Amino acid sequence: MGYKLPFSANTAVARASLLYCISGLRFQQGQWNNTEELLIEVKGLQKKGLGAEHPGTLVSMADLAKTYRNQGRWKDAEELGVLVIEKQKRVLGAEHPDTLRSIANLAMTYRSQGRWKEAEELEVQVMETRKRMLGAEHPDTQEGIGNLAMTYSSQGRWKEAEELEVQVMETRKRVLRAEHPDTLRSIANLAMTYRSQGRWKEAEKLGVQVMETNKRVLGAEHPDTLISIGNLAETYNRQGRWKEAEELEVQVIEAKKRLIGAEHPETLSSIANLAMIYSLQGRLKEAEKLGVQVMETKKRVLGAEHPDTLISIGNLAATYNRQGRWKEAEELEVQVIETRKRLIGAEHPETLSSIANLAMIYNLQGRLKEAEELGVQVMETKKRVLGAEHPDTMISIANLAATYINQGRLKEAEELKVQVMETRKRVLGAEHPATLTSIANLAMIYNL
């Protein structure tokens, strides 16, 4: 029968098991603060009943690290994630599935911080180990390959991401079947990569396929189905097909409100997407109303400094900017920048995006010297942090060129625009929408 735990230990473990199940439900509901409280109690009970380095205790600690990540507490997530990995390596071994899962989670934390090189190194390690231990076609191996593809995509390495995603999709079709939820997720990831490359028709075709299959296999209101509808809405939005995008996004919002509640983070993300669709159509009052609603709810539910809250503040600033309410836009953007500098650092990609947005606001106010200073800062930092040919670096160069045009410095603007166009041709291809935009912008300079 094995060793029988003392009564007090048995009681602690039983309570820990119950609370752990409840924490899983809270996690799915996006109630991360409550999840954190439960998992901290679980960890304490498991230490008492099982020991500080028992595999079950370590799994709970790993889940707590994931909860910290979802709260935007990346430093806490990283510290706890590293601690868990060290203990699992010692107790279970470096190649145990639980250890590899924790390494993959740490890689995801690095990716959230824009530390893609570190994320990539860990994901390659996990992928190679799983290939050797489990085989190339094991679901965990395929998941590892998919995670690496996501990191490549974050770096703008879409060709490499596409190759891995096609590989995962084909393997899952063969091993799991074409309509398995994991297969459909891999098809959705491939569609996202096509969308990033401006390959709208391919992205749309796969998006419709995933949505229709999810509806038939999982049901019209399954979470995976709603995600696929939202992804298709984004594809339509990127093509300027705003009416179709709006209809799908409204459908998603109504379903999410009914199923998971109006204040669930995923519901709020869908409302934010609808606000963006309204903004692009010039329906700025409707966009503002939704933007304020999302921002205020996220402040209350997630906290004023949560990454998702900061995104919503930045989105509202963009809506004010489009309305010509530059003072209000500036105040919000400065707030976001200062918070991000403090929480994730001055060189994080999201911080740099906020600084670029502030430069745009200055540009529109005719504060060209301030706009130029920020534009140069963003461009130089992105070159160093992301690389000279990263898509975001190209955007920063193009933005600086726009500032030079407003200053009448057409020669300098032309040099930057040519640089962007040539790089995009080489990296993205001559027919990518971003490349075509660069050509049009260069033509505009020649016409001035």
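Next protein, fold it too.
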Amino acid sequence: MSRGAGLCIAFDTALILFPMLRTIITTIYPKFDFLALDENIWFHRQTAYALLFFVVVHVTGFYVNYYRIEELKIRPETAYEMLYKSWAGITGWIMCLVMFLMYTTSNKEIRVMNFETFKYTHFLYWVFFIGISSEDDGPDLALLCHAAGCFVSTKSINSYNPAIANIEDEGRKKCLGYNSWRYVLVGLLLYIVSLLWGMYRSFRKTDVTTVIVHPERIPTLS
């Protein structure tokens, strides 16, 4: 359950970026208006709620896992050490802290009172994206990768159940990640393309035809 939720977290991490591709959405909306692309903010929120749900499942699952590992003496570490002193535990709690800051500052009252707090706190998503990126084998994409500690590996699984161990792989340690970097990479590439495209369009000459001031004193230019 914890690893399944972890894979859902990786997928949602990429999916949550799609509604934020404003330049791409604005460009394709006239041709694909049947897709309800104007509901992108709503979809972004729903993905965030799903991400939070799977994080809770993931963390709860590993709490149970660590307790069972200590009880069965599969590893020499205690549950406390695996939760708060291991690489997976430390990076995991850093990512949870980032989520806490981003979710709390997304509250409507905070956005209205101090939009800059909401805006700059959301830049912490880079920490979360780097943390969720991991590979099945070979070096991790970055030092902050959550799976860099290789807590779940073929060696640890084989030691728990020697019946499934392969003789040729005996003694070798292969990390069992989620290949989550593949999902994150797709989302990030589209986000970067949308950002660069928007920057390019910002240099074009713009003619302002109307200015509408809403009751909240927010001007709209067209």
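About the second fold: Confidence is low (pLDDT under 50) at residues 136-144, 160-171.
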